[in-house]
Each structure stands twice: as C-alpha cells, then as structure tokens.
Write a structure and sequence with these properties.
By secondary structure, this protein is an alpha/beta fold. It folds into two domains: 175 residues, FAD/NAD(P)-binding domain; 91 residues, 3-Layer(bba) Sandwich (FAD/NAD(P)-binding domain). The protein contains seven helices and 17 strands. Strands 1, 2, 3, 4, 5, 6 and 17 form a seven-stranded mixed beta sheet that branches. Helix 1 runs parallel beside helix 3 and helix 1 packs parallel to helix 7. The chain is globular and about 55 Å long. The relative contact order is 0.19. The mean pLDDT is 92. GO terms for molecular function: oxidoreductase activity. Keywords: Flavoprotein, Oxidoreductase. Pfam families: Pyr_redox_2. This is NAD(P)/FAD-dependent oxidoreductase. InterPro entries: FAD/NAD-bd_sf (IPR036188), FAD/NAD-binding_dom (IPR023753), Ferredoxin-NADP_redctase_2 (IPR050097).
C-alpha cells in the first residue's frame, strides 16, 4: 500500500490550503473530502474580509479555492473517513471506499452541528457503527438499521442488503430513491435514542422502535473524538497548540474544528501553519 507523506481530511479553506502548502513543499498529499469544497463556503452570500477577494460571493470563493488547488496539482479523493488510527510510525485511515496510510495527518473536517443521540457514544463498537460497507461482511443473514443523511447513502444500503437478511433504511433527507427487496424504507421518522437490549440494538424514534443486530449512522461528519481515538478535546473542539499540533504525535488540526472564530481567512491561515508543521515533523522523522 502506498504511504503518503501527509493526509489531509477536509476540503474547506483549511484543508485546501494545507494541501496546497504541502504540495509546494514537495510532499505527497492525500486530500480526502468532497469535490465541491465546503457547503459553508459555497452557500455564503457575500464575504467582505478575505484578503484579496473583496465582496466575493461564496460560490465564487469556493471556485477560486478549487481552481487554485487544481492548478497546483492537488487532487481530491472523494471519500468519507470513518476512523484514523495512530500506528506509531504512521497513521492508518479507514474510509468507506478503502484504507489508506500516511506518515502525518491534518484534520480539517470542520464542525458538525449534529449532536450524538442518547446512547450512541456508549454503544459505539457494540452495535453502533459509522460505515456500512466496512462492516457489511459481519451482517450475513442478520438485520441492520441505517440512518441516512444523503442520497449517496443509498448505495451503502444496497451493498449491505446483499449480505444482510433485512435492512431498515431511515432517510433523514428528502428521499426519492427506489430501494426495494429486503430494504424497508421508513420516511419521516426522527431518531431519538439508542440502547442495547438482550444483545440487540434498539432505535427509539418519535413514532416507533426498530430492533436489529446493529445500527449504522451515516452522517457526513463524525465527532473528532470518535474519528481519532485518544484525541484530546477542548469542549467540542480539538485542542491544538500554536503549531496546530494535537496531543497525538504527527497529527495536526486546523480550521473550524479547532474553535472560534469561524472565519474563512482564519481557517486558511491555520491550514498553512498545520502543513508547515507537518512538513517539519516529517523532516524530524526522516
């Protein structure tokens, strides 16, 4: 397996700037995220305080960011990151589409407004998971629940249904799909809590309870503390020093995920610092 020098998670201002800076420093870069950059940027009406781009619309700013990255040879690998594990001399990155390795990692995944459901964190790894394709082999002849937040999750449901006996699909978006056979779709159902009862995962909703062997929560973003085991937090934010270093050697964080102010120019600046710090770390390792 190819081992990259630096893996960057997130394609907002912080992640793109980190990837560009790492590329300038002649490092091999794996940039993981959406190819459309950050919705927070692209949907902004007007930004007035970004140096060199006065009164720019969010859509134009996002295009400028992506065009800059492309011109530098930065490629985006469109995949969802499920977990990042420190292996000592490198990091193992588990994604929905496969696994990757990198000597250093920069987390620039932004902030999620979604709070965990009651019982979610307590049962993580004990019936609750964030990647249906990763664990599909464990559900042969079993029953599973999928909480889906995007139409892209329908492919994961179909993949899981090839192995599982029954899949309950609960879309938390405007569902217009055609999932069928052993996939049972329940629309307009709002999850409330999760608990384990007699070895089964029970999802309590506002209308009924669903029971299965496991529950998959396919949010776009995962809480940083769950994304990287052992990561030190400051409330809901990743704790970093001025070099953007976390408590895990070789792992850096930048952008909204490190705290306020939630400003594009601040995020990009931190992305630059994180990349330079990662390059310094690589030089020390070598």
């Amino acid at each position: 397996m190819e081992r990259y020098d630096i893996a960057v998670i997130g394609t907002g201002p912080a992640g793109l700037e980190a990837a560009i800076t790492a590329k300038v420093r002649n490092k091999s870069v794996l940039l993981l995220g959406g190819k459309g950059s950050s919705d927070k940027v692209s949907k902004a009406h007007t930004i007035q305080n970004y140096l060199g781009l006065p009164n720019v619309s969010g859509e134009d700013m996002a295009k400028a960011f992506l065009d800059h990255a492309k011109s530098m040879g930065v490629e985006i690998t469109e995949d969802k990151v499920n977990a990042v594990y420190s292996m000592g001399q490198y990091f193992a990155i588990q994604c929905h589409g496969g696994d990757y390795e990198a000597t250093s990692v920069i987390v620039a995944a932004g902030m999620t407004a979604m709070k965990p459901f009651a019982g979610e964190m307590e049962n993580l790894g004990r019936g609750v998971s964030y990647c249906a394709t990763c664990d599909a082999a464990l559900y042969k002849g079993k029953t599973a629940i999928i909480l889906a937040y995007s139409s892209e999750d329908e492919a994961e449901a179909s993949f899981l249904a090839e192995r599982a006996e029954t899949v309950y699909y609960l879309p938390q978006y405007d569902y217009n799909g055609k999932l069928e056979n052993n996939i049972k779709v329940s629309k307009d159902v709002k999850p409330q809590a999760i608990e384990m009862i007699d070895g089964q995962a029970v999802l309590h909703t506002d209308s009924e309870d669903f029971k299965a062997d496991g529950i998959f929560i396919l949010r776009e973003q995962i809480a940083p503390s769950q994304l990287v085991p052992g990561l030190q937090m400051d409330g809901n934010h990743v704790m970093v020093d001025r070099s953007m270093a976390t408590n895990i050697k070789g792992l850096f964080a930048c952008g909204d995920i490190t705290g306020t102010p939630y400003q594009y120019i601040k995020a990009a600046g931190e992305g630059n610092v994180a990349a330079l710090s990662a390059v310094s770390y690589l030089n020390q390792v070598k």
